[in-house]
Description:
Elements: H1 2-12, H2 19-24, E1 30-32, H3 41-49, E2 54-57, H4 63-76, E3 81-86, H5 92-101, E4 106-110, H6 118-123, E5 127-132, H7 135-144, E6 148-152, E7 158-159, H8 167-177, E8 182-185, H9 191-199, E9 204-207, H10 209-212, H11 221-229, E10 235-238, E11 245-248, H12 251-261, H13 266-273, H14 277-283, H15 307-328
Parallel strand pairs: 1-9, 2-3, 3-4, 4-5, 5-6, 6-8, 8-9
Antiparallel strand pairs: 7-11, 10-11
Amino acid sequence: MDILHNLGExxxxxxxxxxxxxxxxIKYPIIQAGMVWCSGWKLARAVSDAGGLGIIGAxxxxxxxxxxxxxxxxxxxxxxFAVNLPLLYPDIDKHIELILKHKVPIVFTSAGNPKVWTQKxxxxxxxxxxxxxxxxxxxxxxxxxxxxxxxxxxxxGGHNGRDxxxxxxxxxxxxxxxxxxxxxxxxxxxxxAMFAAMALxxxxxxxxxxxxxxxxxxxxxxxxxxxxxxxDDSTVLTLKSITPTRMIKNAFYEKIRTLEQQCASVxxxxxxxxxxxxxxxxxxxxxxxGELEIGQxxxxxxxxxxxxxxxxxxxxEYIQTQQRMCSNI
Length: 329
């Protein structure tokens, strides 16, 4: 991007004192989310090679699949990377063994108690980050000894917090409550949103939806096109009686909505949900019967781009926003 080239050496040192860039040894405070069925080694590599932190999403991987992705990543680049690890995953022990075996440098944990695995990982020199949705969980994660926190607002796609706290409200409250670096997530897909999150006190941003619609994303082309076609009101937070999940409205969502309006039991909703709904929608491209997990910011995304281009655009827009704000003072 021209604006990056024109800044020269000043640009290269722009984030050198940023706590997240120092912690992860990355150039830009941009973290790619570990999205199920989207975040394979190719996307993680592309983001890390572009200067951010790429993440392999283990939530949709059997242990042997995760190992393959880790090995392929390490054979392709020596840049730092992370594995996103939902703590409620059935084979969590096997995932932990693989992470230790292959010396994964950074682990992002979510959907569970960080006290269970944080110290074991840190004893092996692994940096641990935990995803939270409110101040109470942020304090518990800090007490557990994590190195940083992802504070995720309810605009985010996929599984979400029950409190429905927006990113704009969540970030400053978490930043005020904890003493460790905070990474903002939920509703961030542009450099101006990145600037806003960091103005609220975040040290970095984690971005999912924008990278889900990248060329390197392992999602089905149908799903990527659905993101591009989405409008501002295309997503909804549903399945609140089980696990709140933000998804694009489709035939499957209408079935769930009807059940919820009829005050169906959790068991009845689970029976319709079944297994593999997210895989059906995101990985296999079934736009009617699949669970199309994506963030509310999808409405602003109008193209499928290489991950490197996305990173460059984010930084360029960030700088332009910074310059515009300074000129308004």
